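seq as requested:
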Amino acid sequence: MLIPTLREMPSDAQVISHALMLRAGYVRQISAGIYAYLPLANRVIEKLKTIMHEEFAKIDAVEMLAPALLTADLWRESGRYETYGDDLYKLKNRDQSDFILGPTHEETLTVLVRDAVKSYKQLPLNLYQIQPKYRDEKRPRNGLLRTREFIMKDGYSFHADYASLDVTYEDYRKAYEAIFKRAGLDFKGIIGDGGAMGGKDSQEFMAITPDRTALDHWLVLDKSIASLEEIPEDTVQAIREELLSWMTAGEDTVVYSDGSGYAANLEMASSEFKTVTKVAVQEEVERVATPDCKTIDEVSVFLDVPVEQTIKTLLFMADHEPLAVLLVGNDQVNTIKLKNYLGVDFLEPASEEAAREIMGAGFGSLGPVGLPDTVRLLADRRVEAIANAVTGANTDGFHLTGVNPGRDFKADYADIREVREGEMSPDGKGTLKFARGIEIGHIFKLGTRYSESMGATVLDENGRAVPIVMGSYGIGVSRILSAVIEQHARLFVNKTPKGDYRYSWGINFPSELAPYDIHLITVNVKDEQANSLTTKIERDLQEEGYQVLTDDRNERAGSKFSDSDLIGLPIRVTVGKKAAEGIVEVKIKATGDTIEVNAENLSETLEILGKGSSE
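struct tokens:
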């Protein structure tokens, strides 16, 4: 079998999962962001597919396969050909017709159903596929977490009404939870952003990145080591430094309450907000010089006012129209919330040159008072509660004091700020905590976004043409491989006969996803009795339904054990020095425990161990 393991951690890998997939011989990069899935990785993916097939069958989802090469006309119908962005692979055929490589398949499935389904009686339909997708990432990185070609499960449901969509949406939520639990993942279902999909209601599923400072999570101690306290401090420190040298995988921040079930992506998270009644006497607006004060902190110190009494003004271009955004003090704007509230296709910060042309001043001196009529004004809801605020004066080097919302400027108000860790949960139960996460799934209620733009209708019970109501459901199949390894990577600590402490990296695969159930190793392939016993064990185990990877290479025992730790199968059975007595060694990967067993009793032992489940 092709399992090209590496002795050292690859220097170009920045996250643990990428390094271990390379070192354990699971994947190899063909070009930037494009990987080959070698036999072990392919077996994991096939097992994940089996889990998905089983869970989706329970909700009457039917598998199909659409082409990856799509005519651009489909995406022109929906309007996404122009708005999707630079990640869309665009190409021409020999006739100079426009095509794309599919990053997702809403348009394709909408057209298929539009042309085949005419009556509400033919609905609902629930279809899915598992295939490669293509997105021209500007900076592919971190192994399978950010690639240009990736494996995705995408499902689409079609309904005559929203009540039917709600049922299927809930079915998918439960199916996703079952799939991720069976895959051995620590995950959270969170409030998500529909983004380029165009959906309204959506939920993301995030695999939580382990805390690299929590040694108990990472370490598997050899049976000769009683506890972590036994390991010398210099070895423990080396292990800590090794862990902290890796980047934290996951580009998303998960915000969750420590006192309730609330969880959301940072891009969508809110915190508790209570309307505050102003009691301060309103001061008169005064223009004051603030030389060399560009930041909120500098203005706060110079004027000796609390940061919370200042209002920051940012300028954006929203669908090419100027938009001034107000925030309290050092709050940060949440551009996803802002874009969703505005309902625009394009949103970007204005240049300082544009700010001077539109508002008369550069960054650091912008304010909401006396804006031109061409500038729309939107404020975070916390701004409305500030009395006698300090704002920019729209003149370089000057600010205004005594500014009061409602009297001195009028704005629309919305929740457009980024929450901070430690704030109260929006449901009032607990405080907000932050964790890093890897997006592994996303479900959307698309509604009629695509059916209306592409003319997909059915006749309802009254004979009227109504747009089909749709849902979309995705799982990042190849990302799950990374997420599982990220969560189940382990440092195996051993004590040598000389009394030294050694540690090495490996994978501790959950039993349902492990490429094989058992790693069977012959220590000395020149020992005929060992070879004979290995052959018998392999045959017996396979007949009992176990998937067995047998290492009968003519290699040193140390190399075989090292590769076994890397590959990460739940159980290792070693045929060694006691082969003539019919005795083999069984090692449980999840705990590091080893026991000697008579080969005749191996089956019963494995049954007790439950195929080495890491649960």
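Confidence is low (pLDDT under 50) at residues 611-615.
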